[in-house]
Design brief:
Elements (H helix, E strand, L loop, with lengths): L2 H4 L21 H17 L2 H17 L6 E3 L7 E3 L2 E2 L12 H11 L9 E4 L2 E4 L4 E2 L15 E4 L12 H13 L4 E6 L2 H11 L7 E6 L7 H7 L5 E6 L16 E5 L11 H14 L2 E6 L5 H4 L17
Parallel strand pairs: 2-7, 7-8, 8-9, 9-10, 10-11, 11-12
Antiparallel strand pairs: 1-2, 3-6, 4-5
Helix pairs in contact: 2-3, 6-7
C-alpha cells in the first residue's frame, strides 16, 4: 500500500485480508471510494512520486488477484468475482450507466494495462470502445481457491461477447469442471450465443455452473426464451437495472430471479410496482426471489428492503 494511503485507511474503509495482502480483497465499492482518495493525494503533494507508487500498487493489485481478476465481492448475491475477460460493448439501454465502464476507466487511469484503451470519454462519462482483452494468466486462479465460493464470472465484461473466441470460453469451462467445490454464476446479455456454445460445452450440464441472462424491460423479455433453451443445472435472470415493467415475463424453468434498481450518478428510477410484479411471478412459478437493491444516486441510503424485510432467496433453498 503506498505510504500516503495509510493515512486515509480509516476514512476510505480500507479493508484487506491481512496486513501484507495489498490490494487483494477490495470490493468494487471500496476501490471506487479509495480511488477518489488517490486522486486527492496525487494533486496535493509530490505528484510524480505518488503517481509512480500508485501505478506500482495497481500492477501488484492486478497480479495478486484483485477485483480485476478475482476478489472478494460486495455484490450481494455472490462471494467473489473472476475476470478472465475485460471490455465490452453497449448494446441496450440497460448498458448506458454500466458500473463496469466507470470502473474500467478508473483502473485505466491507474495505469492498469489490462484496462487501458477499453473505454473512451463521451460527454461527461466513459463508454466502452468495443475492445476485448483476454487475460489467460487469470484462468487458473480458481484452482488455487480451496474454500467453496459463489463466483461471478466476468463482472467486468461478458463471457459470451462475440469477440471472445469459443476456444477461450472452452478453457473457462474446463476450469469450472475442475473446481466442483465452487459455484459459478455466468450472466450475459447475449443469451443466443450462450445457448449456442453451451449446447456444445454443457450438453451434460455442470452442476456448479449457473447460467443467466439480464432483462431490463419488456423489450428484452425474448432473452428468457433463449435461456430456457440453454442446457444448465440452474437458470437465472437478473432484472437489473430494472427500467420498466416486466409483468408479462415467463419464468418457467427459471430457478432464480434477481431484482435491482440502477445505481450511480445518473441512476434511473425504479417503481415499487415493477418489483412487486416480479415477486408475484416468482411465487407463481416457484422461482427463488432475490431483491438486491433500490439503487439511486446513494444506494446505501435507499437500502434493499422490500415491505420491511430483505429477500435473499437462492435457487438451492428458499428462505
Amino acid at each position: 500500500i503506498p505510504r500516503p494511503l495509510r493515512a486515509c485507511r480509516r476514512r476510505s474503509a480500507w479493508r484487506t485480508r491481512s496486513p501484507n495482502a495489498g490490494w487483494r480483497g477490495l470490493s468494487h465499492r471500496l476501490i471506487d471510494r479509495t480511488i477518489k482518495e488517490h486522486y486527492k493525494l496525487i494533486y496535493r503533494t509530490r505528484p510524480q512520486l505518488i503517481a509512480r507508487r500508485l501505478a506500482d500498487s495497481a500492477r501488484r493489485f492486478d497480479s495478486c488477484g484483485g477485483s480485476t481478476v478475482m476478489a472478494e465481492s460486495s455484490i450481494e448475491w455472490t462471494d467473489a468475482t473472476w475476470n478472465p475477460v475485460a471490455g465490452c460493448t453497449v448494446i441496450t439501454p440497460g448498458c448506458t450507466n454500466c458500473y463496469a465502464m466507470r470502473m474500467a476507466a478508473r483502473l485505466s487511469a491507474m495505469d492498469m494495462e489490462k484496462y487501458v484503451g477499453l473505454t473512451r470519454k463521451s460527454g461527461q462519462r466513459h463508454v466502452w470502445t468495443g475492445k476485448i482483452r483476454l487475460d489467460k494468466a487469470s484462468l487458473e486462479l480458481p484452482l488455487t481457491w480451496r474454500k467453496p465460493r459463489h463466483i461471478f464470472v466476468n463482472s467486468m465484461s461478458d463471457l459470451f461477447h462475440d469477440a471472445v473466441p469459443a476456444d477461450f470460453i472452452s478453457e473457462v469451462w474446463e476450469v469450472m469442471r475442475q473446481t466442483p467445490q465452487h459455484t459459478y454464476q455466468l450472466l450475459t446479455k447475449r443469451p443466443s450465443r450462450m445457448r449456442e456454445i453451451a449446447g456444445v460445452l454443457n450438453r451434460k450440464p455442470l452442476r456448479n455452473a449457473w447460467l443467466g441472462t439480464t432483462v431490463e424491460h419488456s423489450d428484452t423479455l425474448w432473452r428468457l426464451d433463449e435461456l430456457r433453451k440453454t442446457p444448465a443445472a440452474i437458470r437465472f435472470v437478473s432484472f437489473e437495472p430494472l427500467l420498466g415493467s416486466v409483468a408479462e415475463a415467463d419464468l418457467s424453468k427459471i430457478q432464480w430471479a434477481i431484482v435491482g434498481g440502477e445505481s450511480g450518478p445518473r441512476a434511473r428510477p425504479m417503481d415499487k410496482e415493477w418489483v412487486e410484479e416480479i415477486r408475484d411471478l416468482c411465487r407463481e412459478y416457484k422461482t427463488a426471489f432475490f431483491f438486491k437493491q433500490w439503487g439511486g444516486v446513494n444506494k446505501a441510503k435507499t437500502g434493499r428492503k422490500l415491505d420491511g424485510r430483505t429477500w435473499d432467496e437462492m435457487p438451492s433453498r428458499l428462505t
